[in-house]
Write a structure and sequence with these properties.
By secondary structure, the protein is of the alpha+beta class. Helix 1 packs across helix 4 and helix 2 packs across helix 3.
């Protein structure tokens, strides 16, 4: 997939994943990777920035497989931002699809 396409929808996919249920970082990498090929080096800085922007709250939860895990929870601001991104994405992809249909040979 084109890296610019990926960059454009990554935040939306991350927000949508956490909207469904709270997740810890590596779990989120696995979930997002079902749609977009990403790695931890891409997701963790994004999570940090979006937490600083107050789209996520974090908390620790004990793990049976090692140290406690940091979970991400979508805030009300995060829900509003996700909704805004989804609206923008739908408008954008519809315009592109319409353009491509109109210019098809």
């Amino acid at each position: 997939m084109n890296p610019q396409f990926k960059k454009g929808v990554l935040e939306l996919v991350v927000l949508e994943s956490v909207r469904k249920r709270d997740m810890y970082g590596y779990e989120l990498v696995e979930e997002v990777s079902k749609v977009i090929d990403v790695n931890e080096g891409t997701i963790y800085p994004l999570l940090k920035r979006m937490t600083n922007e107050r789209y996520f709250e974090t908390y620790l939860r004990e793990s049976t497989e090692g140290p406690p895990r940091k979970y991400y929870h979508l805030t009300a601001a995060g829900v509003l931002y996700r909704d805004s991104l989804e609206k923008d994405w739908n408008e954008f992809q519809e315009r592109v699809c319409t353009f491509l249909r109109e210019h098809a040979d």
